[in-house]
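Slide 14.
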Amino acid sequence: MKPNLETLRKIRAITEDGIVTDEEVMSLGNYLNDNQVARKSWPGNVIFELLKRIFDDARLGPHELKSLAYILRGIELQCCGALGQFDEAMEDDDISANAKFEVIDFKLPAMHWEMQVQPNENLKKLSNVDLDGYECDCGDWTSKRFLFGDDSPGRLCRCLVIALRQPDVEADIPRLDWNTKLFQLLDYFTETEGCFDAVPTWKLLRCEGRQWVAAWGDREWCIVYTENDSGALERYCYHINERRWAYGATPVGAGALKNFFVGYDEDAGIGGDTSIPSI
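Slide 15: predicted structure.
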């Protein structure tokens, strides 16, 4: 049965940090409740029946979360080919696997705005935002993002993304040769109602006329954003230790990116490039 790609994206977002939370389970359940196509196709049909049993028992304890995590992990391994074949398709690529990347720091621009972001369907309460330092008083920001450098895109919670999309604020962002991907990411997270990945290190990679944004931190996953053949921005995840792409979904330049990540060095950073700070 052909898998539902949107459901796989939802699962990938849950499993990439190795932790399944109550909120993530509720979000997945709501998604399947509202989407009949996803609910009737694999792997949503399997997960939906499991979630029904969990919710029928009115229990969502550590045991249920652990069981669900194992099932989601099994779905991921099955999709990525870990049960028999790995990312063989990545060798058929226009970018040579031995290609070298130009590595550029992907930083947030200096801004001087303060505002309040009003509650909506995704934000349950009003948030106070200060773009001079990219600070917010929402729970997402105060729980982890405050630890990252002042110019790290990992500081951008949903509230800060909304703030940057205000017309006057967005017009104040300098248009530079390297930061077109910043505007693409702002478009992407506005459309998906998401936020920048909560990891500290962000780099722009360039090679043979193409660009990739790579982000990583204390997880085993590296997140990659790049355009597909239609010009739309897409999100991919690469497991550093297991040397595989999540669900077998590979971006353009996957072979070269894999070699870049395989060169990971604890002191020099992913890719063994001394221009990249330590994770």
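Speaker note: The longest helix spans residues 62-80.
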